Amino acid sequence: MERAMIILTPYESRRLIAKAVAALPCVQQAKADGWIITATGSSTGYVAEELTGQPMVKENFISGHITAGETWSTPDNPDYIFPVVLHKGERQLIPFEEALAKFGPHDVFIKGANAVDSQFFAGIMMANEKGGTIGTALGSLQARGSQLIIPVGLEKLIPSVLEAVKHMGINHYAWVTGTAVGMMPVISATVVTEIQALQILCGVETWHVGSGGIAGSEGAVALVIEGSAAQVADAHKLIQSVKGELPLKRPNGTPRH
Fold first, then answer.
1. 252 exposed, middle or buried (CB, 10 Å; 0-12, 13-18, 19+)?
2. Interatomic CA distance for residues 31 and 50, integer angstroms
3. pTM confidence score
């Protein structure tokens, strides 16, 4: 048994997690034989790149987000990239709702999150009063038994998603630093953090041992991995391949509160 310590910036984590999501057996099956919808977001843009093999201006894939110390709704961006819809691996230029209507139990919906807790429950902030993308999709996904996958980095770790939800809501606040949001708790998804990603791709066990940094490493996570010599060597190669992933910039267009 060998052990190693890893530091990942949030952008390196996004790339690592995206590789793992693309490698999941259910995603590979849906890519070959079914439907995949990759919703917009700062993490899912990386997943879309891994699934399509095509580079994207990921800033144009961002919807609601936190930047400049505030929450923001989806920008008025003329270059905005809508959810990426794949059918049998081929991109379909149709609204995601049209594809969702065709979903069965083996089709896959991929959506990022704003929070994750130690039970790997995910929380998705919603600025839209009707619940936005997750509000549109979750009922259909649950009813049909379809696959919901949530890529989310440990930079977004909070004590409890279920507790957070009790204290949130667009109309609950006296004032807000940015856009008012509620939160959708998701407890039935396949959540992929750095911990699951390293298990999926390298077979190692992972412990989250620290967070934070300065000078570009704000939001970084410190991880300790354990596995066989071969597994740890594979993890080293993988981590080296994602090191240096460039930070995202603010999306184009006019931000909206």
1. middle
2. 12
3. 0.96
Length of the chain: 257
Token digits of residue 74:
């989806």
Per-residue pLDDT of the chain (257 residues; tens, 9 = 90+): 999 999 999 999 999 999 999 999 999 999 999 999 999 999 999 999 999 999 999 998 898 889 889 998 887 877 788 999 999 999 999 999 999 999 999 999 999 999 999 999 999 999 999 999 999 999 999 999 999 999 999 999 999 999 999 999 999 999 999 999 999 999 999 999 999 999 999 999 999 999 999 998 999 999 999 999 999 999 999 999 999 999 998 887 655 65
End-to-end CA distance of the chain: 51
- Kindly provide the b/e burial profile for residues 112-141, where b requires at least 16 CB atoms within 10 angstroms of the residue's own CB: bbbbbbeebbbbbbbbbeebbbbeebbeeb
| SS3 at position 74 | strand
